[in-house]
Amino acid sequence: MYDYENRKLIGDDFNQAQIDEWFADEVDGYANLGAKDLDKYIYPYHKLNSILGFNRIKLNSGSKVLAFGAAYGDEVAPILTNISELTLIDTSSHFESNNEFVSKTIRIKPNSSGEISLPDHQFDLITCFGVLHHIPNVSFVFSELYRCLKPGGYLLLREPIVSMGDSSRPRKGLTKRERGLPYSYLMDLFSKYEFSHLTFNFWSFSLLSRISRFFANFKPFNSTVFVYMDIIASYLMSFNKSYHRGGFFSRIGPTAIFVVIKK
Description:
Elements: E1 2-3, E2 8-9, H1 16-26, H2 29-35, H3 46-52, E3 63-68, E4 83-89, E5 105-108, E6 123-129, H4 138-148, E7 149-160, H5 183-190, E8 197-205, H6 206-212, H7 224-236, E9 254-262
Parallel strand pairs: 3-4, 3-6, 4-5, 6-7
Antiparallel strand pairs: 1-2, 7-9, 8-9
């Protein structure tokens, strides 16, 4: 899913017909993995988002926030008291049944092209957690997020940096089109913009994530202890930024990145 010879992400140069086809495959992708079952759904990243994201920014009360690809909107629960207006963009209609944030929420369906039909410099904070790797034209969508962010505003991103295998056939626990975004691609993308501040942390250490799967109903990234263990292990093995990881030892390392950007 990445053309190393030309340093291009597959999908970034798609025409509109190709983008439309990809978009159709992903509209209900996350919902159909089980998230649409609200009675059983538990948002799994609150502690991670707080430790690596929300705790590292200064968000004033009365802030305008865009939650991009945020399903029900649960991800902003830790900062809800600071939000005067929440704009939530998501493709699936399945997530509109949750009324927890209705008094503060404007829901918008995205355009398949990636254009965000909102004014420039609109938001104090934009969250984009695990969304860009579901989108073909990542660089264009990132440019739209940057455009909508106020000077001095924050953009929080969270993305996998490893390959997710052959997307031409079904993959357990994954949507049809999602793929990781190489670390080198993301660094090239960020270098094209001006930021007053940019930091990132590696997370999702491969061995810890595998071990956690043996504990039924355990959401590791909702555990403070687990998150710090994961951050430390990921930092120690952060030299392994390989996109394709074939052998056993090459698989030992962080598999995702968390980025804090201040415009």
